[in-house]
Write a structure and sequence with these properties.
about 240 residues; alpha/beta; TIM Barrel; 10 helices; 8 strands; about 40% helix; globular; binds SN-glycerol-1-phosphate
């Protein structure tokens, strides 16, 4: 059986675009999971991401167990820190915040994660995580105590992504931040996509079909949406299969 990563690579090769819903364990109550996930199952969503910048210990595992009762979609951890790691998920984006210069989020959390990952079957996907400014401070910026890359420094963004690839990251994730007022610009996405040989994920502030289309057309292989689905479940229904 293919790994989750191999399926992402295969989808990219075929030009099949992927869409992940991001569920924050702090915001989704277990009793709401079944109704929400039934809408996810009826939609074009291909992956369920679970994570948040600050989540209390135990909440992620409870949520993952509940989600997996209701869907066959791959459940992928998108953790803000090590306490969100649970072996009940299928995979983990092993995120290194390469836009920042805080060693804790470049390597520190990763060292701490090993005792939790060592005996688990979780598929670990090394991911270069790049935060780009969107006009307001984001949770990632606050928690990681790092500065995002400037939107108009496109060369610096492209070089950061390429450096991530050459360091061995298997995915690059361009992040505007949860609830971003401005999603990542198509121009930035296309410049980065042209340089990369690995799949490109884009998220933050995407809240309508038009932006989904622009983001895919610019070269994103996978889009991540959290806030828009949290605030408006009918947007999920709009994205029916
Ligand atoms: C945040 O990129 C994700 O880490 C999704 O962002 O919540 O704005 O959709 P939104």
């Amino acid at each position: 059986m293919n790994t989750i990563y191999q399926n992402i690579v295969a989808a990219k090769a075929k030009g099949k675009k992927l869409l992940a819903v991001l569920i924050d364990p702090d915001k989704m109550k277990p009793q709401h999971v079944s109704g929400f996930i039934s809408k996810v199952n009826a939609s074009i969503i291909t992956h369920v991401f679970v994570g948040g910048s600050e989540v209390n210990e135990g909440l992620t595992e409870t949520l993952v167990i509940e989600i997996k009762k209701h869907t066959a979609l791959p459940v992928v951890l998108f953790p803000g820190d090590v306490i969100q790691i649970t072996h009940k998920a299928d995979a983990i984006l092993f995120l290194s915040l390469i836009s920042g210069r805080n060693p804790e989020y470049l390597i520190g959390q990763h060292v701490k994660a090993i005792s939790r990952l060592k005996h688990s079957q979780l598929e670990v996907i090394p991911t270069g995580y790049i935060l780009i400014e969107n006009g307001k401070e984001t949770a990632v910026q606050r928690v990681s105590k790092t500065q995002p890359l400037k939107r108009n420094h496109v060369t610096s963004i492209v070089h950061t992504a390429k450096a991530g690839e050459l360091l061995g990251k298997q995915l690059i994730y361009l992040e505007a931040g949860s609830g971003a007022t401005q999603p990542i610009d198509a121009h930035i996405i296309s410049q980065v996509a042209q340089e990369l040989n690995i799949p490109l994920i884009v998220g933050g502030g995407i809240r309508n079909k038009k932006t989904i289309e622009t983001t895919y057309n610019a070269g994103a292989d996978m889009i991540v949406i959290g806030t828009a689905f949290e605030h408006n479940e009918s947007f999920l229904t709009e994205l029916k299969k």
